[in-house]
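Write out this protein's structure.
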Amino acid sequence: MKVLAVTGYKPMELNIFKPDDQRVSYVKAAIEKRLIGFIEEGLEWVIISGQMGVELWAGEVVLDLKERYDIKLAIIPPFENQETRWPEAIQQVYQELTMTADFYQPLYKGDYKGAYQFKAKNKWLVDKSDACLILLDDEYPGSNRFFHEEASQSVEEYPIFVITPSDLEDIVEELRMTDSDYWE
């Protein structure tokens, strides 16, 4: 596997409304753990559409991993200016990521025109990647269910790797165990 698409929930779907919410660090740690395993097996590119939440957090993780690994980040938004209605702090993160990514190219020129752009984005990401990593709770699918449906319908074998709520609980416990204050 050389190219991995990463997606998941938007922050509000996880009831995260502040960029410094502790839960963001748990999601990022779970993404990092999975990405390191894939990188060590030959992963070269992570591609995201740059939507807020899991995708932007994954982008930040990839940029951090670039300091230790030979990994590249591509951001392929469904259309230009997708971030214009987002909170300003998230817009800043998006703009910084698009400037530092190894590749950035919106799928469609111009602003939002219709839901077909999101459907095309999902199809494009599946077609251009060898597999995907998705943060997903089967009991509470959010907007990521559309990507998951597209990935599941792929005519070729398309591995779908999932970060589950249970995986996040394991990460929280791992991080807790490494905290010296926990043991005092």
